[in-house]
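Field: sequence (string)
Field: structure_tokens (string)

Example rows 1 and 2, in order.
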Amino acid sequence: MLHKTPGIVLRAVKYGDTSLILSIFTELFGIQSYIVNGARSAKPKAAKGNLLQPGNILDLVVYHHDQKNIQRISEFKLGHAYTSMHVNIVKNTVALYLIELLQKSLKQPEASPELYHFAAEAFRALDRESTAAAANIPLYFTLKLAAMLGFSFAGHYSSYTPFLDLQEGVFTDLPPHHTQYLDERSSEITDQLLQVTQLSDLGKIELNKERRRNMLYAYLEFYKLHLPDFKDMHSPPILHEILG
């Protein structure tokens, strides 16, 4: 049966002489693998294969069978045309981080329309917002994705609860008796990030390279505490080098 669904390309791997196997986060079916035959051939119609690069949002018509590990695409076209994400080095590096975080976090092919729309809007915002806002999107996206996956921070930063305990996932009055917590300033910024409703406002949160780096790694440690099979990511060191 054919289904129409938007999807975000997360990975494209060469298969055979002319084909690609894609990992796509779809609205209808969650994360799925698709084979696209002829996407790399010399024929003129294969030029559409250029649309299949990671980060692109596509409008898809797909065949779907629950028992199959690899599905097929009947039709695809660009669902959103980026103007800067693929050519701006900061934005492109941020996009690679978002893609890898989705790949590491989404393991089961389960539909999650709310999560899909959140992710798609993050990519669109990354394209349209300033570079200053783009630099803080990884922090925002990591926090919000965690909440949508079912683990988030309880409470808020205040003068009475100035420390964020990453093990317990709660703002506390005193530093906990372990090292997995954020200092007062990083806890305050985390609360600010959690309250952002317009992604353009991310550009107003000023962070130096070292604090941004430490906060992101702390958030990823939070993932490891709640997702037992969450593996170390390759993109953060490159991200911090570019943002620096």
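Row 2 begins here:
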Amino acid sequence: MEGVPVAVETVREVGPDTIALELTTPEEFDASPGEFVRLRAAVDGEEITRYYTLSSPSVTDTFEITVGVDPDGDLTPWLAGRDAGDTVYVEGPFGQVAYEDDGDVVTVAGGPGIGPAVAIAEAAHDAGHDAAVIYQDDEPAHTDRLEALDAAGVSVTVVDGDDDETLAKAVAAHLEDGQHYVFGFESFVSTVADAIEAAGGDPDDALIESFG
């Protein structure tokens, strides 16, 4: 199987049908929050490949990916059932969107985009920069990390899944507060881009990662 074998450290629930998979960092693996890896696993004799964006602010000893679990999926239920010491294979990192201690940030997430969004906000805050998180989801994940950020003085706004008006207002309120990082499915990132433009900003200046 292609890729580097890495050990599963922990698997924990971080929201409804959502897990965080912590993996041992392989040698010479240098990644920043916002980048993604290709994960490979053999499930019932079949090799399956999926892409996952990092959801940890650093990769020093371990790194994390956040996985939405589809009970009928061909890989995610298998990942949810892993134990410490199990092996998966990773390649990467890949991607053009990455936070490398380069100033204040506004992270905007829809659904599974909260993984990289919260990681970037944590990395920015830890580096002494200002951060804001805007998150749209009816069933939020990583609420413990969001609460910790809020307690540390980071602006955290959680919006209902169908409330695009409040989402747009939050984007406008933070238009000048830092580099925008946007993560989510195509319809969500398009909505955010429109909100940035409507508020007088340039959506081309935002760093956007669409999950298809």
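free_text_note (row 2): DSSP finds five helices and eleven strands in the chain.
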